[in-house]
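pls design
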């Protein structure tokens, strides 16, 4: 109903979409990714910004500071997260996790043969990683 007109007077128009459903879905995924990775209103840089996920609930983790000490915490930890109860996972000090991740990445760079073999293994049809990426 529009402007108080009776329902039987509603007009139905069939219009061709401006973009394909596939393109529309791709744009929606990109917008979601952009929102996740947005750096608005950040005063500090965090090496793993937008790249860590909570081991408890799977939510994305972001950086924050308390008494000038950098931490990563689950975004679902807040009580106003719209998902329900706040995530109980503890915050992780950036100085504890960043060097471990950095050394792991550096190790992959120093050993490209392992990296290539791992990429091949994870791209096999039965790989959980491949299934997750396709999903």
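designed seq:
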């Amino acid at each position: 109903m529009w402007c108080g007109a009776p329902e039987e007077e509603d007009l139905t128009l069939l219009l061709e979409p401006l973009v394909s459903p596939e393109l529309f879905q791709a744009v929606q995924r990109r917008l979601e990714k952009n929102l996740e990775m947005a750096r608005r209103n950040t005063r500090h840089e965090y090496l793993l910004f937008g790249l860590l996920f909570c081991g408890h609930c799977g939510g994305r983790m972001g950086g924050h500071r308390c008494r000038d000490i950098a931490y990563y915490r689950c975004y679902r930890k807040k009580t106003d997260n719209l998902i329900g109860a706040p995530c109980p996972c503890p915050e992780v000090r950036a100085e504890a996790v960043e060097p471990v991740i950095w050394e792991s990445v550096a190790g992959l760079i120093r050993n490209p043969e392992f990296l290539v073999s791992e990429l091949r293994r994870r791209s096999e049809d039965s790989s959980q990683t491949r299934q997750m990426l396709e999903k």
